[in-house]
Amino acid sequence: MASQNNFGRKQKKHKRKRGVILTTQGLQKLQVAKSQAEMDDNSGKRYTLEAMSERTSLSVDTLMKIIKCELGVDKQSLKRFFRTFGLNLEQNDYYWPQSHVDENLQSDLVQSKTQLEFPEGQVSLNSPFYVDRPLIEAECYELILQPGVLLRIKAPRRMGKSSLMARILHQGRSQNYKTVFLSLQIAEQAVFQSLDTFLRWFCASITVELGLPNHLDDYWDELFGSNISCKIYFEQYLLEQIAEPIILGLDDVDYLFQYPDLAGEFFGLLRTWHEEAKNRDIWQKLRLVVAHAVEVYIPLNINRSPFNVGVPIELQPFTQAQLQDLSQRHELDLSNQQLESLLDLVGGNPYLLRLALYYIRHENITLEQVLQTSLSSPGIYSDHLQGQLLSLEREPELLVALTQVINSQTPVEFELITALKLQSMGLVNLQGNKATISCKLYLNYFRDRLS
């Protein structure tokens, strides 16, 4: 009997040794060290996979497994990769893949019965329910360390833009950078009535976030105008006063699209600052992160637009693997068929998926009950669906357009602005200007109400 027990333990031990996967913390640590090595040893140029293979003596295939964080690799390979960039591999830098989550997350999940979070808005930094998109986060964390960088995060509403931006800013703070988060939707309506008022509000808001006294009147000059005054204020005051790099995160910038003249001037200003960083050290301290749900549909001078420069970051819907991960974080054991059914209903929208999993756990109901009652008046999606309907009713042309999509068996072609607005609401998927409904939940709900 003892020998059988020992054999069983050996089998389990062997099973655990299939390989390890980097945790989010380990991946961030590795990316930061690699980025620093690129600045110090490679003239700021990013290492290719071939160059890293030569430097680490690891195969390109092994390196891809490490970076993608999807398949396990030998622990010694991970140690070698870390040592190449002057790091020690620590216990919280990796996890065994069959556990699916790292040790810190397991600890959070043990307590999750009292910490279950209702999904709304940004996912907090310490939340155990934030699912990484490893390649995207890793790229953003690496890029934000580059002088004068501009990151553009684009995705429909409730796809995780604000949550990703919060983590980029957090990564900056871990490097002792100064960070500012500013959503343009918090400004009062009167702020948008003139460029001068808006830029003064913009500068004052950032000044407060940086903990500096307001000296707008000392730098604002009517002779130069608002744009130049704003630039002078940043250059001669904010960037001079702060020794560290500053990451400026601007959320909901597409809110300005309803003020085309103001938007054209402001976006031109952002483009100017980004271009200045190529030539002047002081502007290299400023790193910009902008997030928007709608593709740019207002006319912008191609040479003054920030939307055709910098690095585009586009958030994709969750995959079945990511949904499975999220399900396990809610301590649920859903089958592949159940996961497929939920994805079929709501697509890969992270918010709608989290809402379903929350109610399954919190109300102790089944997925089948969620699917059956998804359109009912007290159903879990009723508030969200009614909100979408109200938004459509404020813009009747969108209501008409969505009705066409609902009633058509083939993709429907619209004017660009209409197509982009529907996409920003998450209601349709686009191929060019042709739209199809994004998921069955919207198809069934709006077919009943728009028929």
Compact description:
With 451 residues, the chain is α/β, with parallel strands linked by helices.
Salient structural properties:
451 residues; alpha/beta; 434 Repressor (Amino-terminal Domain); Rossmann fold; Arc Repressor Mutant, subunit A; 3 domains; five-stranded parallel beta sheet; three-stranded antiparallel beta sheet; 10 strands; 9% strand; globular
If you had to describe this structure to a student in words, what would you say it looks like?
- This protein is of the alpha/beta class and 451 residues long.
- The protein has three domains: 2-99, 434 Repressor (Amino-terminal Domain), CATH 1.10.260; 134-314, P-loop containing nucleotide triphosphate hydrolases (Rossmann fold); 383-450, Orthogonal Bundle (Arc Repressor Mutant, subunit A).
- The protein has 22 helices and ten strands.
- It has helices spanning 2-16, 24-41, 49-56, 60-68, 75-84, 103-110, 112-115, 134-143, 161-174, 195-209, 216-219, 226-241, 260-276, 281-284, 320-329, 336-346, 350-362, 367-372, 382-394, 396-407, 416-424, 440-450; strands spanning 21-22, 94-95, 150-154, 178-183, 246-251, 286-292, 311-314, 412-413, 428-431, 434-437.
- It has a five-stranded parallel beta sheet with strand order 4-5-6-3-7, with helices on both faces.
- Strand 9 and strand 10 (434-437) form a beta hairpin.
- Helix 19 crosses helix 20, helix 20 packs across helix 21 and helix 20 packs across helix 22.
- It is globular, with a radius of gyration of 25 Å.
